Structures are given as structure tokens and as C-alpha cells.
Amino acid sequence: AYMKGEATAESLVLRGEAFYREQAIDLALGVRAAAIAPGERRLSLSDGGALGYDHLVLATGARARPLPIPGTDLRGGHALRDLPDADRLKAEIARASSAVIVGAGFIGLELAAVAAKLGLAVTVLEAAPRVMMRAISEPMSRAFEAKHRSLGVDLRLGEGVRALIGEAGRVTG
To answer: Model's pTM, two decimal places?
Structure first.
């Protein structure tokens, strides 16, 4: 919805600050865990502070894996993990007629569906033999494949990327 202009950045917030206060959850935003002392049930923070805990959940997040191929320094290639990434990509999609998406996980397929609904010719390259192979069952995977193909998405399974090619410093293929 955000990529299509149907939602605002504010509407994407899962829980507002009031929720965390009401649940007695302290948010240490902008601070990283530096060390864990499990015997002491203590977490050292990057700012020099420390937190005690009864239960510790390590929710480390995820990063887009950089493609270890030539051409990743060309303009026009994007990773999508956060709102600034989405803003950059949204601006590019508004000017594009086609898109190639590397990876058929949840994020890649969601982007493919949005781009197709916005009228772009979309190709998705996935190295695995089926979409979302590590996350969902084979029947669900086949259902997602069928849905995306019905939107006109060209799904190429078992296909890796050897290089990005470009012209004048911009990805063209």
C-alpha cells in the first residue's frame, strides 16, 4: 500500500509508543547490544549503559544479502529493507516501465505484485526451484507462484544472477 501511495509512513507503524509504555516495555532505540552476561542476566549496551532482564529475546533483524557479482555499484539497483529504501524505490518505480527483482521471498514477491499492478513488466529471478522455499510448504509456494503469474509476473525459478550490466553508470540488464 505504501509503494502504491495508498498508505503513509505513519500508518506503517505496527505499535505506537503508547502501547510500549502501557505494556511496561522499554525501547532502547538507537542503542546496540554490546555483550550479554547470561549468568548475571545483564546486557551491556553500546552507549555504556546496561539492562537487566528476566527473559532475553535476540531479535537481530535481517539485512539484504549483497550480491557478490560485478555491477552492484551501478545506479538503479536497490535493496529493500526499510522506509528510506522504499522511498528511493518508489521514486524509481514511478519512472520505470519494467523491473527485475532478484529473490522470490516475501519482500521480493510483494514488490513484484505491486510493480505489476502499477503496470510494469516484472521478471523475478529466484535461485531456488520454487518461491519462498525456506519459509512455506510446497503447496503454498505453488499457490503464490500461480497468483503472481496471473498478475503477469515472469517467474524464473532456478535462475541466478551472474552480473548486472549497465550503460552510463546505470543498470540496464
So the answer is: 0.76
